[in-house]
Specification:
The structure holds two protein chains of two kinds. Chain A has 17 helices and no strands. By secondary structure, chain A is mostly helical. Chain A folds into two domains: 121 residues, no CATH class; 197 residues, no CATH class. In chain A, helix 10 runs antiparallel to helix 13. Chain A is globular, with a radius of gyration of 20 Å. Chain B is an all-alpha fold. Chain B has two domains: 122 residues, no CATH class; 37 residues. Helix content of chain B is 69%, strand content 2%. In chain B, strands 1-2 form a two-stranded antiparallel sheet. In chain B, helix 1 packs antiparallel against helix 2 and helix 1 runs antiparallel to helix 4. Chain B is flat and about 60 Å long. The relative contact order of chain B is 0.12. The mean pLDDT of chain B is 87. The chains are: A mainly alpha, B mainly alpha. Chains A and B meet through helix 1 and helix 2 of A and helix 7 of B. Chain B: This is NADH-ubiquinone oxidoreductase chain 6. Chain B: Its EC number is 7.1.1.2. Chain B: One of its GO terms (cellular component) is mitochondrial inner membrane. Chain B: It catalyses: a ubiquinone + NADH + 5 H(+)(in) = a ubiquinol + NAD(+) + 4 H(+)(out).
Chain lengths: 347, 175
């Protein structure tokens, strides 16, 4: 992208999200979502090839359909209640339409089919923004409408998201598709306790953003986008090869790493509300997620794939690529569990 | 003419069917212009004289003209019109048939008179208060309030339109 155009595009993307999160009028919340989507399209097309054009078109079609449904919900809510404020109660039919629209925006099942395709067609840094920053605005709206959401449908969407995200990622070798399916699974987990304790959703979102940012930036260091390219990490940046293991295990939710903490809180919230079957199903489904992360750990650090002898000397040369923020992100994404009472101030 | 608003709404939907059956953009622009004219007349009939004429000026006289010029630049040798292929003609006929059936169903209802004739609300945009003459037209005072109470919205909308042009140029740049 032209360096003169970059400040305007990135500023508009950030401003759109800020307008959505900070507005109390439904119309301005919608305007912020549209600004965000409009400015994100050229970020998806940073490298112009037909694949990224296809990814940008798919993203645009899905998000604008969701915005249309959201606008219809906003107007029918105004017709029924006369209210334009985001903090007041929403009637049930518009609330259902709003939840559907926001599920489409977030990539929850059964509207999840665009997430791996769009993440695959874009460079790694655009995929990072797609899976982290673009989730902030819709989740802020869902946080504001959480008293009016139909519990049954939201729990159905969450369970479906976990199942589809886990099963879909099983046969993948492309790393961006794996991270896309992982995002679908995490969205399912996030929306489970929205009705019971919405602060757990925000907490899960924070930890998820830290973990996904760590993964994307680590992959960006060696520019690896397939499992085969990941298997050369020991040669390119030797110190990172064994560090991928705790990051991926944290993403999969293994104790005693950070990724276990939000899942634990969500299971606790659900069992406090007398629901035992749903957290059991979700936990068992997420084990499939852990399986394909373990496959990545296997190719990165547990085995060395056969290579020719003249490629084996890259690790001796000095690596000049800068590592943006990776050391503090790795520490945050693996070692936060002991300070959990400090983090869980909403209990 | 008591049921003018109902007739105009039916004509609006038929115009929309004309371009959503997806002919070539030049014909779609024609149907969009016709639908726009009917929409403006609906707004005029609801009492919003200022709004309707504004829409004529800006939407039809500004945006549609620019759209017409750009599609004329990108035209192909044999553009697809409504009678040129079975897909477009089929979509058009299905849409028109559904609209006719809906009109017949509405007219056969018991409270059809309420829907058809009582639909008009021509006094909607006049507010009977205010100092001076005691009468304020809601539509023209709204355009003034846009720069007063709605200043932030004008800034956001203007910035978004500007960024829209930027985004389109970035996407079609191609390198």
């Amino acid at each position: 992208m032209n360096p003169l155009a970059q400040p305007i595009i990135y500023t508009t993307m950030i401003t759109g999200t800020l307008i959505t999160t900070l507005s109390s009028h439904w119309f301005l919340a919608w305007v912020g979502l549209e600004m965000n989507m409009l400015a994100f399209i050229p970020i998806l097309m940073k490298k112009t090839n037909p694949r990224s054009t296809e990814a940008a078109i798919k993203y645009f079609l899905m998000q604008s359909t969701a915005s249309m449904v959201l606008m219809m919900a906003i107007i029918s809510n105004n017709l029924l209640s006369g209210c334009w404020t985001t903090t007041s109660y929403i009637n049930q039919p518009p609330s259902l339409m709003m939840m559907t629209a926001l599920a489409m925006k977030l990539g929850m099942a059964p509207f999840h089919f665009w997430v791996p395709e769009v993440t695959q067609g874009t460079p790694l840094t655009s995929g990072l923004l797609l899976l982290t920053w673009q989730k902030l605005a819709p989740i802020s709206i869902m946080y504001q409408i959480h008293p009016s959401i139909n519990i049954h449908i939201l729990l159905t969407l969450s369970t479906l998201s976990t199942a589809m995200g886990s099963w879909g990622g099983l046969n993948q070798t492309q790393l961006r598709k794996i991270l896309g399916y992982s995002s679908i699974t995490h969205m399912g987990w996030m929306m489970m306790t929205l009705v019971y304790n919405p602060m757990t959703t925000i907490f899960y979102l924070t930890i998820y953003i830290i973990l996904t940012t760590t993964m994307f930036l680590t992959l960006n260091l060696s520019s690896s986008t397939t499992t085969l390219m990941l298997s050369r990490t020991w040669n390119k940046s030797t110190h990172l090869a064994p560090l991928m293991a705790p990051i991926l295990m944290s993403l999969g939710g293994l104790p005693p790493l950070t990724g276990f903490l939000p899942k634990w809180i969500i299971i606790q919230e659900l069992t406090m509300n007398n629901s035992f079957l749903i957290p059991s199903i979700m936990t068992i489904m997420t084990l499939l997620n852990l399986y394909f992360y373990m496959r990545l750990i296997y190719t990165t650090s547990l085995t060395l794939f056969p290579t020719s002898n003249n490629t084996k000397m890259t690790w001796q040369l000095e690596n000049t690529k800068p590592m943006p923020l990776i050391p503090p992100l790795i520490i945050t994404s693996t070692l936060l569990l002991p300070i959990s009472p400090l983090l869980l101030t909403f209990h | 003419m008591a049921y003018i608003l109902f007739t105009l709404s039916v004509l609006l939907v038929m115009g929309f069917v004309g371009f959503s059956s997806k002919p070539s953009p030049i014909y779609g622009g024609l149907a969009l212009t016709v639908s726009g004219v009917v929409g403006c007349v609906i707004v005029l009939n609801c009492g919003g004289g200022y709004m309707g004429l504004m829409m004529f000026l800006v939407y039809l006289g500004g945006m549609m003209v620019v759209f017409g010029y750009t599609t004329a630049m990108a035209i192909e040798e044999y553009p697809e019109t409504w009678g040129s292929g079975l897909e477009v003609l089929g979509g058009l006929l299905v849409g028109l048939m559904m609209e006719v059936m809906l009109v017949l169903w509405v007219l056969s209802l018991n409270e059809a008179v309420v829907v058809v004739v009582g639909f008009s609300d021509t006094g909607d945009w006049v507010i009977f208060e205010g100092e001076g003459s005691g009468l304020i037209r809601g539509d023209s005072i709204g355009a003034g309030a846009l720069y007063d109470y709605g200043r932030w919205l004008v800034v956001v909308a203007g910035w978004t339109l500007f960024v829209g042009v930027y985004v389109v140029i970035e996407i079609v740049r191609g390198n």
